[in-house]
Amino acid sequence: xxxxxxxxxxxxxxxxxxxxxxxxxxxxxxxxxxxxxxxxxxxxxxxxxxxxxxxxxxxxxxxxxxxxx
Length: 69
Fold this sequence. Notes:
Blueprint: H1 3-12, H2 17-31, H3 34-41, H4 45-55
């Protein structure tokens, strides 16, 4: 199964794949900092930040980088 065939099957049964993907990403940015989600999924930081704002997230003070010191 690849993304194109999966998308076709979802459409056949009446599930809009774009809405599902957006909903899943919004849920992720509520659970973890937007920069982490952006890097993991290949999204631009600004896109992930916009999604967290739209979803009402509170990760506005995340400081990326090495925190082992």
